Structure formats: structure tokens, C-alpha cells
Amino acid sequence: NLFEGTLKDTFDYMPQLKELDMSSNKLKGTLPEFFFKMTNLQILDLSDNEMDGPIPNVIPEGSRLKYLSLFANGFDGTIPSSIENAQSLTHVDLSANYLRGTIPTALGSLTNLKYLFLAENRFTEGPIPSWISNLPNLQDLSLRETGLTGSIPSFLTSMSNLILLDVQKNSLVGTIPPKRVGSGVSKLRFILLNRNQLTGTIPYELSRLSTLDMLLVDHNSFTGSLNEICGREMIPRVTADCKGATPEIKCDCCSVCCAEGDDSCNDQPYLGNLDPIWENSFVRRFYEFGPSITFDGVEPTQRK
Fold first, then answer.
1. Residues ≥6 apart with Cβ < 8 Å to 287
2. How far is the C-alpha of 124 from the C-alpha of 181, rounded, in Å?
3. In 3-state terms, the chain is what percent helix, strand and coil (to 5)?
4. Contact predicate 34/10, CB 8 Å
5. 225-259 confidence digits (pLDDT tens)
6. Spatial separation of the C-alpha atoms in residues 225 and 183, rounded to whole Å
7. How far apart are CA 22 and CA 45, in angstroms?
């Protein structure tokens, strides 16, 4: 549909409303407070509209909200601290807005979260938040282009349910020790580290990860070889700095090889939050990262 206008007072007298999906319209204006005060509302999907203003800091204790998707709007201000009152949340997508400030620790109390996308906002520069380690059920994490600094933290190794790790286009530095990504994380399928300032060799354990479907490491300063991946029965999509007279990485089967200094190489956005529809009971049927880059919801080791 292409609904236009604002949502002011439109749903104020629907106290029994449980699901509201008005995504991909042309809605404008601010986000009304009454949505968060509707005690029965579980699904709020206003993604891909033209709304703006702050996200109201009025989420009450005992909120039943499970799915909150506001991506691709013009929301600004900070993420409301009252989001910690929505303990039933499993899906939060606030990406592609103009949110600022620090990423709040309140998100770390949402232990039912499976899906957290905060990509493409204007947060204060800082490290990957340590409270992410408090989210044992987290499966999909995207912090692409959010001003991240520092190194990839060791707690990622304990996140046994993590499937998608997206930290593209940040200022992360340092190496990837073998025990940080690859060993101990048994379900990782999509590792997006491209366009950072990472150094060192790519861990052997990462290349051997049996669940791996995508590995993006281009536009960093890695060295060594990724040819261990080339001998696999099912070769994942891999991008690396493996082009030029003296390539930084040796890779005979990479999907894309970039040369040092070529910023236009592999510059497409890999949007892991494309169409994760809530109608599927919050279960991913597929992972789509753009045109012709789609994977099903079954990890490689379980495919027939």
C-alpha cells in the first residue's frame, strides 16, 4: 500500500489491538506515544516510511511488545531507556535512522532478544557494547556503520546461538584471535567484517567453520591465505583484498577480489535485515543481503 499522512490519534481507541503492520508506506510525522501504552500490542512494524522525531520514552513495565521494527525512517534522538520494560521483545530493528548518543545498556536486559539491528545510525563512537554478552538467545546482530572503535571482543566466543555478525563500515582495529571468532561459535553463518581497520591473518578456525555461508573481509589490512575455504564441498561467498600485483590475501575461489585503494570494489550495501517478516512466527525463512544474494534459513551442515 501507499498510505500517506500521520498516525496521530488514528489508533488511540483500539485497546485490544495486538498486531500493527504499516510498513512500506509514506507515513510522516512523529511516533505517537499511545502505541507504547497499548497493553495488548505485540507487533509494531512501521519500517520503511518517512516518519521522524524521537522514539517516545514511555514504554511501561509489563509491556507485551515482541516485535519492534522502525528501520528506514528519519527518527532521531536517543534510544529510549524505557525499552528495558519490554522484556518480551525478541526483535528490535532501529537501523537506517538518525539516532544518536550512546547505545544504551538497557538493551542488555532484553534477554529474549534474537534479532538486534542498529545499523546506519549516528551513535557516539565507542567499542562493541559489552552488554551484548548478556543476550544468550541472540541470533542476528548488525552494528554496521555505527561508529564502532576498538577490537572485536572475546565474549563473542560464548554466544553459541549467533548466526549473523555484521560490523561493516566501522573503525575496528586489531587482529582476530582464533578463539574470538570461529571456535566456540558453532552456528555462525554470516560474518561481515569488511571496511574496517583490522590487521593480522585470518584465523584458520574461521576458514574451517562448517556453518559458514558468507565471509566479508575486504578493505582491511589482513594478510595470508584463504585457500583453505576453496577445498570445501560448499564454498561460501567470500570477499577479500586478493587482487593486484601484490595482493594482501591469497584466495583462488573468492567471489569478489578487491585491490588496495579501490574503494569502489564491493561497495554494495549488504542489508541483512531485508524482509525478516514477523508472520513467520519470528523464524527466519531466508537471509537476503541484496539482489541475487539470498540464502535459505537452513545452515549448510543440515542441507540435503
1. 164, 189, 190, 213, 272, 294, 295, 296, 297
2. 25
3. 10, 25, 65
4. no
5. 999 888 888 889 999 999 988 899 999 999 999 99
6. 18
7. 6
